[in-house]
Predict the structure of Tsukushin.
Amino acid sequence: MMAFLLEGSVAALLLLFTTVKTCHLSCRCEEQSFGLFDSFSLTRVDCSGLGPNIIPVSIPVETSSLDLSSNGIRSIEGAVLSGPGYTTLSSLNLSNNLIPVMNGSVFSKLRYLETLDLSWNAIKILVEGFSGLPLAEVDLSHNRIHEINLNVFRVRDHGRPFSVDLSYNLLKSVTRSKLSQPLNIQSLNLAGNELTSVPNLQDISLRFLTLDDNPISVIDEQSFVGLKYLIHLSLSLMPDLQTIKPQSLQDLQNLQVLDLSNNKRLKTLSAEVFHGLTSLQELNLLNCWLTSLPANILQLLPSIKSIVLKEGVNCWRIQKQERFHRLVRRKEAEAALTCDVTGVIL
Ligand SMILES: *[C@@H]1O[C@H](CO)[C@@H](O)[C@H](O)[C@H]1NC(C)=O
Ligand SMILES: *[C@@H]1O[C@H](CO)[C@@H](O)[C@H](O)[C@H]1NC(C)=O
């Protein structure tokens, strides 16, 4: 009886040990220790490419990163993402699976989740959202999302700013219902979706926005209203983009990088398009069919440092000789744009 008990408890202990300390046989675990006497450790667990039966998988405590990519997983339930190791998870990779519907609430136990990769799935529908999670990066690229309610990104409490990558979906619309809390997303990647217009992202303190490869044909005065914190805007590879209306970018006073490359149907950019871009440092116009740029581009873009015009044609700002202004009694540097290929006239 005693022996049995002992055996039982040893088994229980072993089980505990298995759940808590050791790595699942098929997965690859890598432990990193930090701190005095290695008192603090983080474990990365790679369970990729093992097939759908790998879930639910028990992971060691203090797992910081779990890779469940390329497993042919079709659905994920909240119960799958719970257990000792999951509470410490800061990064979860579910890319390259077959998930068609994503209910964001399955991640609700992952209180420290910062990075979530859901790219290359079959996600058409995203419900319930990621509210309450301190997400720093969400990759929803290469899915089939038709519609997204920006409520899914709402932060319930004033958590850390987070970024969301929705690139390469089949996103058709982004809607936003009345929000009780401001959105705090810093980086949003909506590349490769089916957006036909720029979604209303007002009230989000976005810093990075990518709308590449969407069937947007017109950028207008409403497109970027209120996005005054935006630093980086990518509007590249837009097969239908023909028009950027005057004053469309005027709210983007902090924008430093604007990528308009590979827009084959974009033929003109009026001077008024650049209105308000006082911080813009880099402008990429590679592979556009622009015939000219406004002659006063340097006055329009007082902070500009470099413009990529064509393949192998890069232009940058130089200070010409200083002129002494007798009237104002000070030297004034005169700026000019120079390109590394002769014959480019701006
Ligand atoms: C997730 O896994 C995929 C495939 O293994 C990999 O390409 C991707 O970089 C991973 N994502 C993150 C955020 O590490
Ligand atoms: C999402 O999952 C939660 C928890 O399992 C459930 O209560 C909720 O109804 C689900 N939402 C939808 C729209 O399916």
About this structure: The first strand starts at residue 28 and ends at 34. The pocket of 2-acetamido-2-deoxy-beta-D-glucopyranose (ligand 2) is lined by residues 78, 103, 105, 127-128 (CB under 6 Å).
